[in-house]
């Protein structure tokens, strides 16, 4: 390999483990390069076009669908670990401009230090980067009130797969000139180019936050509680939904007992605002307007950490409880949540495979866990993929989408034909061919596949 003008960017000690949080097995890359700035990224992309090499960007490596993994021969990994500077913060415009490799929690701390607020809060915030968030259009519990990453991206700079630079947007809060290129790039999973600079909108930081876990006799009651609360004029910042199976799996995993009463379903409510009286009143209205079975205010650091650690450990708890599992993150319209939750439970298979959903109540994003449980290894291998397909079909039946926040990557690509027509997929491929004519950026991921069977 002739590394030519990018020889100095070779990174021999930077990336030792090339996995992510999916089960995808990566192919060894031929090299890892570590750019320091925009010009380095341009040089890398232009070199890759000349040499006929594919590029896969890697940021925090916390993706769950294989997006940051090399899966084809002759691929170079581009690690963003050295592009991790805050470039500028403009307090009067309430914006911050950063390089893509900045860890999200660092942005939170940085802006909150001056009374500002960047709301998107994926649970991986301590280890994922803002570049990865933009490329996956990441969401989090606060998406109910504040929206997802896309709602905060004002400007993007980078280099297309063709090697040409681009810079769209800036500090303006409104901008409808031309096609919405920021919308196109956000969520594009590194398939179009490398992002080198991001400008984000900020908001005033809420001064008061109150939380409570509320138990319900059924999932229906939990869903109705959100509807009733919103009709009462309350917009919680978070409404995280769990069934008792989630709590049981987490408690067993953590080796602790619940500090709250057990019920069939729960919502962790969080309300924020600027005065104690307003926030207390909103929380009281949510509880009063629902048919609740029990509740525990999360009014001490210990109680709050207890409940959130249970929520954070659901996935790990299910892995321990079930032996093996698949995790999906479908999304459906909020009006279809109750029906979808019931239909998911019905997908339990006679082999012993079970299906449990939990997640972000307010935006219809359900984390669906397909659990091996009592199924034999042979039955798991034979039937689990069909159950996953049924979960995706269910999302389609209820007017939903294959993914609410984790993206398509490698693992969900086989289902793209369920959501998109062959013409849709051709349009995706056409867009890519304009900005990345040699198809070097993250090939065979997310949007289409040369081998993909179009319906
Ligand atoms: C414990 C845990 C909890 C999680 N919780 C959430 C959650 O609540 N909400 C949520 O949305 N997701 C969640 N995720 C998924 C994951 O954290 C997000 O998708 C996150 O945005 C990925 O960021 P990253 O920096 O790790 O990116 P990576 O995984 O390294 O990369 C993600 C994609 O972006 C591309 N990419 C990265 N940087 C660039 C760049 N500069 N230019 C071009 N392409 C680039 C990569 O090629 C890849 O396709 C969770 C993951 C874990 C492990």
Beta percentage is 15-25%
Could you say what the CATH topology of the domain at 86-204 is called? Uridine Diphospho-n-acetylenolpyruvylglucosamine Reductase, domain 3
State the CATH architecture of the domain at 86-204. 2-Layer Sandwich
Structural class: alpha+beta
Question: What is the average per-residue confidence, as pLDDT, rounded to a whole number?
Answer: 93
- How would you describe the shape? globular
**Kindly, what is the distance between the CA atoms of the first and last residues, rounded to a whole number of angstroms?**
39 Å
Strand order of the largest sheet: 14-11-13-12-16-17-15
Task: Kindly state the percentage of residues in helix.
Answer: 25-40%
**Ligands (ions, cofactors included):** flavin-adenine dinucleotide
Q: Can you count the helices?
A: 14
**Low-confidence runs of at least 5 consecutive residues:** 450-455
Largest sheet: 7 strands, antiparallel
Tell me the total number of β-strands: 17
What does the radius of gyration come to? 22 Å
CATH class of the domain at 86-204: Alpha Beta
Describe the structure.
With 455 residues, this protein is of the alpha+beta class. Among the domains are: 4-79, 2-Layer Sandwich (Uridine Diphospho-n-acetylenolpyruvylglucosamine Reductase, domain 2), CATH 3.30.43.10; 86-204, Uridine Diphospho-n-acetylenolpyruvylglucosamine Reductase, domain 3 (2-Layer Sandwich), CATH 3.30.465.10; 208-314, Alpha-Beta Plaits, CATH 3.30.70. The protein has 14 helices and 17 strands. A seven-stranded antiparallel beta sheet has the order 14-11-13-12-16-17-15, with helices on both faces. Strands 4-5-9-7-8 form a five-stranded antiparallel beta sheet. Flavin-adenine dinucleotide (FAD) binds at residues 20-21, 56-64, 67-68, 80, 100, 122-124, 128-129, 131-133, 135-136, 138-140, 189-190, 194-195, 405-406, 442.
